[in-house]
Amino acid sequence: MQLSRKGLDDLGRTRDILTDGRGGPRPSESQAVETALDFFVDRKCPEKKAARAAERERKRKEREAAGGTKERSPTAPAPRTRPGASADGERDGAGERSRYIPAADRHAVIRRHGDRCFVEDCEVRHAGQLAHSRAFRFRGANKVWNLDRPCKAHHAAFDSGQLRLVEGPDGGVPLIVDRRGRVVGRVRRPGPP
Questions:
Q1: Which of 4, 53, 83, 168 has the maximal Cβ count within 10 Å?
Q2: What is the rounded CA–CA span in Å between residue 163 and residue 133?
């Protein structure tokens, strides 16, 4: 692996930060790189973000069940929503439908298929987009059951009508068919929890 001058400086700084301050052993360059990458992936991985969000939600529900819901004080900040959207994200103040998708719903979609395209044989990772099964313009909801995570190419193919979803045999995994009705793929099955 080749590093620029800045990369080498950052690697040295990482090694200094990882030294325990009491004069302990300085980690090797490999240990510093591994620790920095672990930290970066832990912070940026959508699947790990979704798992952390689910854990926070679980703890919040436990707190509410144990002690009831807390009253919000008048000085506490209001719950965060997109400007102009209601707390449920469905309509803004002027009565317009909002495209806002709550974080919990985004995380649930990522948990369902992982951080890759929802088309089974597509291995595109880290570039997934949220797409409505029933288009937003046709009153499709911004809810988990109406959202999928295709890559950019599959999203464009579904939006242009080149591909569409049909129910699988016996109500199983949905199939992906082309304009002529030929099966060209299937939806990725959810991985283990």
A1: 53
A2: 12
187, 150 in Cβ contact below 8 A? no
- Find all residues with CB under 8 Å of 27, minimum gap 6, and list them: 15, 18, 19, 35
Q: pTM for the whole thing?
A: 0.49
Tokens of 83: 């400007």
- Return d(Cα 188, Cα 150) in angstroms, integer: 10
Whose tokens are 């325990």? That residue is: 20
| Residue whose tokens read 């798992």 | 51
Strands (E), the chain: 131-132, 147-148, 163-166, 175-178, 183-186
CB 126 within 8 A of CB 149: no
Mean pLDDT (10-residue bins), the chain, 193 residues: 86 80 77 85 82 87 75 50 47 66 85 81 78 82 86 87 83 83 81 54
